[in-house]
Design a protein that fits this description.
With about 450 residues, the protein is α/β, with parallel strands linked by helices. It is about 35% helix and about 20% strand. The chain has a seven-stranded mixed β-sheet, sandwiched between helices. A four-stranded mixed β-sheet has the order 4-5-6-18. The protein has a four-stranded antiparallel β-sheet with strand order 16-17-20-19, covered by helices on one side. Strand 2 and strand 3 form a beta hairpin. The longest helix has 18 residues. About 10% of the residues have low confidence.
């Protein structure tokens, strides 16, 4: 077995732990074909050679020299096509993650790739204090999908930025500082929106916050009625809780939120970062409920993978912000606008909203039909589906990745499926087959 080069050893030491000590040779247990790499704990790891080092492992080892250390990836993806992703070692995956609901048109979509390429050759940077043709076309197309009276937009780069903007507009429009949000809700991890994010592991290390927030149980009408008062600036809700478990709102809950905020001089803000841009089968998930909020936040799928965020609002709300009261350097840049316009044009040309309603219902029905004793419930709308298990989801998510299906959790017991909006029934059948295989094996 050939010896690894010193460079490979050094790179992989940050990925799999220390493989050697300075001036100390590797110690080999020939029987176990392992290297004794940490003589304080006597932990054995597989002997690493240039033959056994994968392309993914080598890239991850290089990345570990400089990343922030917040994640521990195990796979390196290098290309994609439609619903498929390919890793650095040539393995194929069915992508039911889509960058967490971002790759709305899938990977390497011709319309999106062409739009980005052509715009990059023309103009990339043009801030919003200057006019731009492609940004104007993007906004015009965007508001053909959005119900009135929403007709104004502040363009940003991410969902957290869009939500931060919504908070500022709510503060200035109402003169109040108290917000109502839902338990198990998620609005982002930047410092402003963290106040509205329920999960303690995200929120508590950075408390206290400038905003006053009343958290209520999701879909609890009595709690909503008690929480909204003349001191409330806004009620801030997701129409379907994403990270909180793929929990759809009841129509009564969202309709009550709309009525109460109107009665008590507060604003109703819908966080559609994950649910918007067709994921539910309507452009906005709130359309399923027959409510139109005062402000809506979008991001994720809006640029198909290019960072685009947007705060949509009414004329009445928009005009309350003083000139220069909010801004952004990169938001609404022509490259992002070209991507957003391409996504919207493909949603329209491909009739993707109807497609999502059809294949989403099919996907959900096929998962229900598994009739697995390990499944507690299948829920969601369109192509935002949660499979709640009767046990921890993490081992099954890992097993699905090993079997070539990418998904993510939504809490401890829920497997979340967020495939590209272009997924076909044949691809869904293959995903469901692998889900059944994993559940039966586990």
């Amino acid at each position: 077995m050939p010896s690894p080069s010193p460079e490979i050893i050094r790179l992989l030491s940050s990925f799999w732990g220390p493989l050697y000590k300075a001036d100390t040779p590797l110690v080999t247990d020939a029987g176990a074909d392992c290297a004794l790499t940490d003589y304080k704990s006597y932990r054995l790891v597989p002997m690493i050679t240039e033959e056994t080092v994968t392309a993914s492992a080598a890239i991850l080892a290089r990345a570990a020299q400089h990343d922030a250390g917040l994640w521990s990836p195990e796979v390196v993806f290098v290309s994609g096509q439609g619903v498929k992703l390919f890793d650095a070692d040539g393995r194929e995956y069915l992508d039911c993650l889509a960058g967490i609901a971002v790759a709305s048109l899938g990977h390497a979509h011709p319309r999106l790739a062409k739009a980005i390429s052509e715009q990059a050759a023309k103009l990339i940077v043009c801030p919003q204090n200057l006019g731009n043709d492609i940004r104007t076309a993007f906004l015009e197309k965007l508001f053909t999908f959005v119900p009135r009276p929403l007709n104004r937009a502040f363009l940003a780069n991410s969902g957290a930025e869009a939500n931060e903007a919504a908070i500022k507009w709510a503060l200035v429009a109402t003169g109040r500082r108290r917000f109502v949000a839902a338990k198990r809700g998620f609005s982002g991890r930047t410092l402003g929106v963290l106040a509205l994010t329920w999960e303690a592991k995200y929120r508590e290390p950075f408390a206290p916050y400038a905003l006053e927030v009343d958290f209520i149980p999701y879909n609890d009408l009595a709690a909503l009625q008690a929480a909204v008062s003349e001191q409330t600036a806004a009620v801030f809700l997701e129409p379907i809780q994403g990270e909180g478990g793929v929990n759809p709102a009841t129509p009564e809950f969202l309709q009550a939120a709309r009525e109460l905020t109107h009665e008590r001089g507060a604003l109703f803000i819908m966080d559609e970062i994950q649910t918007g841009v067709g994921r539910s089968g309507r452009f906005l998930a709130s359309e399923h409920y027959g409510v139109v909020p005062d402000l809506v936040t979008l991001a994720k799928g809006l640029g198909g993978g290019v960072p685009v965020g947007a705060l949509l609002m009414t004329n009445e709300v928009a005009q309350t912000m003083p000139k220069g009261g909010h801004g952004t350097t990169f938001g609404g840049n022509p490259l992002a606008a070209a991507a957003g316009l391409a996504v919207l044009e493909e949603i329209e040309a491909g009739d993707l909203l109807a497609h999502v309603r059809e294949v989403g219902a099919y996907f959900k029905a096929q998962l229900v039909a598994l009739n697995s004793p390990k499944i507690r419930e299948v829920r969601g709308l369109g192509l935002m589906i949660g499979v709640e298990l009767k046990e921890k989801a993490a081992p099954y998510i890992a097993a699905l990745k090993d079997d070539g299906v990418l998904v993510i959790n939504a809490g401890a017991t829920v497997i979340r499926f967020l495939p590209p909006l272009v997924i076909t029934k044949a691809e869904i059948d293959e995903v469901v087959r692998r889900v059944a295989q994993v559940l039966n094996r586990g």
